[in-house]
Structure formats: C-alpha cells, structure tokens
Predict the 3D structure of the following.
Amino acid sequence: MPETSYSEGGDGDGWPPGAYKRPQGLLLRLARTLTDALEAESDRWILWLPVFFAGGIALYFALPTEPQARLAVAFILGTLGILLFVRGSHDGIALAVALLALSLGFGTAKLRTELVRAPVLQDELRHVSVEGYVEAFERRSDARDRLTLRVLSIGSLIPAETPKRVRVSIAGKNTTVFPGEAISLRATLNPPPEPVAPGDFDFGRRAWFQQLGGIGYATGRVSHLDGAPTPPTGVRLWAGIDRLRNAVGARVRAALPGEDGAIAVALITGERGGIPKRVTEAMRDAGLAHVLAISGLHMVIMAGSVFWLVRALLASVPALALRYPIKKWAAAAALLAATFYLVLSGAAVPTVRAYLMMGVVMIAILLDRPAITMRNVAIAALAILAFAPESLFDPSFQMSFAAVIGLVAAYEALSARERTSAAETSALWRRLRWTGALVLGAGLTTLIAGTAVAPFAVYHFHRMTHFGIAANMIVAPLISLLIMPMALLSLIAMPFGLEAWPLQVMGYGIELMVGAAAWVASWPGAVTILPDLSGWSLALIAFGGLWLCLWRTRLRALGLVIAALGLALAPPGNRPDVLIERDGRTAAIRGADGLIFPSATAASYSVEKWLLADGDGTDPKGLPQTTPFRCDPLGCVGKVKGKTVALIRETGAIAEDCRKADIVVAPFKLGRACKAPRIIVDRAALSTQGAHALYIEGLSIRTETVAEHRGTRPWSAHAVTPATDQREASDPQTNPEGQGTQ
C-alpha cells in the first residue's frame, strides 16, 4: 500500500481538504477569527475602559488582606512601563491601556479606602453620653426615627478612638431636632454589624466608606447642647440645604396630607421615611421599587421637562430662535434644574449617579455632540467609579447602569436599522412605524431594562417579579405625563404660594399609581423568591451582558455564550447544613424542605436573610412552632445528616449536650467544660469569627465563618459584637442606598 503524504496541498496546515484537523489548528483559527473581529471593533475599545477600571476595583476588594500602598503604586508604574515599551504596536497599546485602567482602578480603590479612614468602635458601649451635630434626622412611619450625628464626643473615648459619625434610632415620635443643631443624648452603641452569614451583605464595609463608626439606639432624652463649637463648614452647608428640604416637605404635606403626601415628598425631596411599609412592599412586588427612589427616571423627566419647556418658549420668539443657539440655552437651563433637584433631593448616592449621567448628556448638547451614546454612559460610569469606587458593589449602581447600557445598546441597534431602511420605505410607512414605536416603546423599554436588572435583583434581593412589564406599562404614563410634571410645576409655583393645585393633581396620579401597584402585586405568582446566586455566576452574566451590548458586529453573539455559562452556574450548589447567628442564640439546620428552626425562634434580621438566601419566602414571624428540634428550657437538640446539633441556652445543659452532641452551639463561653463534641461554636469562637456555616460532607464537617470571607481589611478589624438595631442598619429595603434604581 503506497504511503500517503499530507505535506503538500490541503489547507496549509499539512492536512488535505476534508481531512481531520488538528485541535491546535482549530484553536488557532478561532483565535485568529476573534482577533480579526476585535480589530474590526477598534472604535469601541474605549468603551471597555470603565470595565477594566471596575475590574481593578473588584480585584482590590477581593483580596483577603489589605494591600500596602506601595503595591498599588508598583502596579500603576509597571503598567505605565509596559505602555511605553509597546507604544509602537497598535494592539500592544490597547492591551497596555487596558492593564493601566485595571491598575488605576486598583489604586483608586486603595486611595479611597485611606482617604475615608476614620475610627470605628471596637466594643459595645452601654448608656454612654454622645454629643454631636445633627447631620440627618429621618422620620419614619413604620420604624423608629433615626439620627445621624457628626460626633463631638462619646463618653470617655479619646479623639483617636472616637468615630466621626454614628447613627442612633430614637423611640417615640416626639423628638424634634434640626440639621446642624448641636445635641446630647445617652445611647447604647455598637460597631457596624457584620454579615449574618459567610459571604452575605457586609454593612460594615459600606459603613467604612460613609465614615460611620457606630450604630445604636438612644436610651435617654435628646437635649440641646449649649456652648458647642461652630459646626464644620460641610455640616453648616448641608444644614441649610436640609432646612430648605424640610420647608418644601412641610408645604407638600400641608397641601397633600396622608400617604399621598408622603410619596410626593419622597419624589420631590428624597425623604422616604413617611411611606408606609405596605406601599413600599406593593411597589416592590409589582416591579416598581425604582419609582420611589429618586434616580435616572426622575432626573430625566425633571431635566427633560425643563429642556423641552425652555426650548419651546424660546422657539416661540422667532428673533431668538433664528439668531441664537436656543437648544444649548435649553440644555444649560436643564442642567441648572437638574443641579437644583440634586440638592433638593438630598444628593443621595443613586441621585448623584443619575445627575452625572444627565450632566454628561446636557454637556454633550452644549458641545454639539450626540447626547445619547454608549460613550457618554462610559464617561459617567468612569467618573462615578473614580469618585466612589465602592459604588461598584451597590445594587443601585449595578442596576441603573445595567438598565441604561441595555437601553442605549437597543437604541443604537434600532437607530442603525432605521437609517439603513429609511430610504427604502414610503413616508406613510415611516409614519405608521413611528406611531407603532410610540405605542410599543414603553413596553420595549420596560422589557429591556427589566431583563438587564433581573440578575442583580435576584443576587441582592432574592426576588424575581414577573409582571413588571404590565405594571410599568400602566404606571409609566402616569409618572411621565402627570406625577413628575406636576411635581416640577409645584416647585415652580411654591414661591408664589400656588403649589396646592398642582400637588392635588399629583396626588391623584399617585393614588392611581399605588392602586395599580397593589393590584398587580396581588396577582397570583407576582413574585418568586429565589435562592442565593453565586458571585461568579453574577460576574459572568454581567460580563456577558456587557459583551453583548458594547460590541456592534457579530462578535456580540459571544456575550450570549458567556451569559449562558453564568446561568448554568446559577443554581445553588452545596448549601449550609447548619447556620449559626453571630450571637449564638439562634441556629438552623437543613431539613428535606429547607431550613428548620427551633421552636419559639424569634423573628430577626438574620432569620429573614437566611430564609431569603435559601429561596424561602416564609415570614419569620410565622415560623412553625412544631419542628424536629427537641427543646426544653435548657436548650434544643436536632439532627442533620446523622449528626446531632445541640443549641445550649442555659448552663445546666452543658454536661449532657457536650457528651452526646457532635456540634454544640452556645451563646456563652464553654471553655474546658465541653471537650467531646467535634465542633464547638461558643461565645469565644463567635466573638472572633462571627456567624458560622457548617457543611457536613460524609464523615467530615467543614466550617466557614464570616471572618474568613471578610479577610483582614480596615472595615473588618474591629471585634465582633452583636449590633443592636441591626435590621435598620443593614436592610437594603430601609436604606435608600441599597435600593436598585434605573
């Protein structure tokens, strides 16, 4: 049989046509195809700078120990050196710039951490005297009122140990204080609370960047502090702004009392404390939570209305319209109006983000540049991350930019299609298509934005709303054409005392909105509670979405592959078999249908979060009183995967439970009195490691702790002390900065 040679002919790889290709050849072809596709998209490379910058921020926060400043400097210098070395290569420069953005993100996060460094309480302080200036006073309808103080002194703490700010809740509704006022009170304070489970939301990290060093509750009467020094300039400035906000809020409530007035105040001044909990829950379950938090939607309507109104008025004067750039004048007026709205609303973090994005749009108009482009979105994202790198992990940042990027990408695609087909259609057909676009635009916008934010809503809140499109189709016209325009008109009329009638019209729109939200939220299956989504899964889904939206050629199709991989990793894997709260008084074991709690377990923030993370929407207040746990006044005993878990409540149970149980949990220190169990989680372990999650894997028991997940970082350096008022401190539903917005 003659020897066959494949050295000549074929496809250039040494193989004849139709023959089996070497894997190396296939990979080489795929790499070449990908490189060519990326080269064709070179004009879009700049859009990835914020992505790499964010990657550097994520790398910084993912480190288990705090890096030294010289590491960040070395990272930046090294990438600068690479950039200078490859400056003759187009592709090399692109790669070096990406690495430089990564290093700058890392360095910016480190710099921000050091700039906000402030003392944090190390232990609980009981009934201690607190003196300070009122920075914020929040009245809340369904919870205690809350004070944020710029601290002057706390008990006998020296200045080096005194937090810059503390947050204190107040019992009763009779306290009246004003921003900028110096006050004194007695309070019990704790360090900012830790996560309730390993890998859960870390309020302590957020508090670090707010320079919030203590959380607690007042134990005495609030009184005015005489002889206090002059408040800092920042406190005086914001006190004046808050007085204006309070005056506007009082005028609104006077003209529109009740819950309608509370919602109107929230939409105008950003103060949401007066909104009843049932309204908040109905809006959330209907997919309308973003309406109650001042964000991009409100900023666009307010600034856009001013832009349209000013331009229309100027256009009505031919001498001005024909001689001057009235569009730029209108953009400048809209920018001023947006700035006023930012200040009036309290400049919360989501509102600042919305303002920056609106500012980029208006500045683009002033510079004769396209207003709505992906490049403007990238500039806004880069500016926000450079100013506040920690925003990368806020639900509001993630959800707002996910929605905007998705909408702009769709706008670009539809605009390109319109340009290529406009010449091929008749004028009548173009008018019909425009009419259809008006009808379908709200639905398409809601669908795109809802799809974009869904993974983040599941990750942060464990909720999937199914009728958000219907709710937004009903409510969007009310907000855009009635509620927010009337809010703007009421602000214009307020100096003349004529705000009552536009507020009444606004209140009518609010009633319709709340009624629609309650109706949609009552539909069967309106909300699904989903279990934890892993961070890697969310990262892949987000990266796939960015890949799909930022590219324009067929290269974008790979984004679906990346997102699909993230979805494949979404189902929860190995869940904890035992969860132990950080104070040692509450524990749960895994049963066939989910988590099981001992009888008489009190509803708490930890219990609620454990259930949500497990995909269980059970109200903690309605936990079953009969469980597989065997309980008596001394403690409870349960079994999971053949292991005995003992939850000791009184010292009288130590001898028996330590002899029989495999896992012993106690809210006090056990010491040498308990040696037999394989795993002991007592006060000593909890005080150093925080909440525990145990995994029973065959004969072995694996332990994960909050301390392991947090690492050694500035916000995790203080001792673990169960924080009082932790629900109000940590719950994103009661913290405006934790709200997802669009």
About this structure: The two ends are 72 Å apart (CA to CA). The first strand starts at residue 125 and ends at 138. Residues 1-15, 719-742 have pLDDT under 50 and may be disordered.
